[in-house]
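USER: My hope is that you can spare some time for a protein that puzzles me. I am handing you a single protein, as its sequence and its fold in token form. Walk me, if you will, through where the backbone shape changes along the chain. The protein I mean follows directly.
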Amino acid sequence: MLKEALLYEMSDGKQAICQLCSHRCRLAPDQFGICGVRQNREGKLYTHVYGEVIAAHIDPIEKKPLYHFLPGSQSLSIATSGCNFRCSFCQNWQISQNSKGKKKDFSGRALSPEEIVATAKQQGCMSISYTYTEPTIFFEYALDTARLASDAGLGNNFVTNGYMTREALDTIHPYLDACNVDLKSFRDEYYQKLCGARLEPVLASIRTMRELNIWVEITTLVIPGQNDSEQELTDIAAFIAEVDVDIPWHISRFHPDFQYLESQPTPVESLRKAYAIGRNQGLSYIYIGNVWGESEGTFCPNCEQEVIGRNGFSITKNQLKEGHCPFCEHTIAGIFSLGSRS
């Protein structure tokens, strides 16, 4: 569905300057942005994906991964086509790299914000996840849905590359409870070469999210030979600690996909090294992802007792008492019920 976009201005009466993500595309008449779904048409900027869901599933919230946001709950996950990154290792490339701007079949099925919220309620979900592709690029759709979801007592979360502008975050933050941000590397060269983007806007978004009191968890996909050096992992962990030691860090195993097929899967030992680095930097909560049985539980950073047990995406036990460790009463950071944040 074609809908006029938010967050743009016109220049010289012809160019549309998009202010939604940090690419800040300047679009000539009929031109699409990098995302492939926003277009300058006759002096206005339009989104082509409003109300068109290309993927919709009910997932455990742990799959996002969000371990400190309503643990053990179900989330209705939605996406449209398109993305503002060009990650050569993308595991959802069939939909993220599919858009009208690329002259591909990008259409999804029509689903209104009202229908999304009603479905989430009917299915017993506690939140809506805007995920699979980059939710920033379907911002208008996400914003309208998030408003309705919030009014209906549901939570909202983004699984995002963090490339949105401050303007976008300021607009949606009253309805956005949590984000899992991919911090893919701590080198600008990596972002330029493998993603078609820059590092600093991602770091700025993480800082802004915490400033706006949005719950943040961070995921780093560790790719052999690209971002797995001790120095880079230390830099990432040190940055997270500088922002907030209570931000959970998910260290995920890479598997070859899309255009990046030259590497083997990440050795588990590399992930354990990253885990140790995170501990040395003082991070309270660190998780190893995409490896069954590795550091899945949540441990109290004070007494080191396991307070939430996990097996894959399933919760095996949850001993929290109103967000506190039952053994030492230390506050466990996160959102464990809607309307409260530890």
Observations:
- The two ends are 40 Å apart (CA to CA).
- The chain has a mean pLDDT of 93.
- DSSP finds eight helices and 19 strands in the chain.
- Residues 230-243 form the longest helix (14 residues).
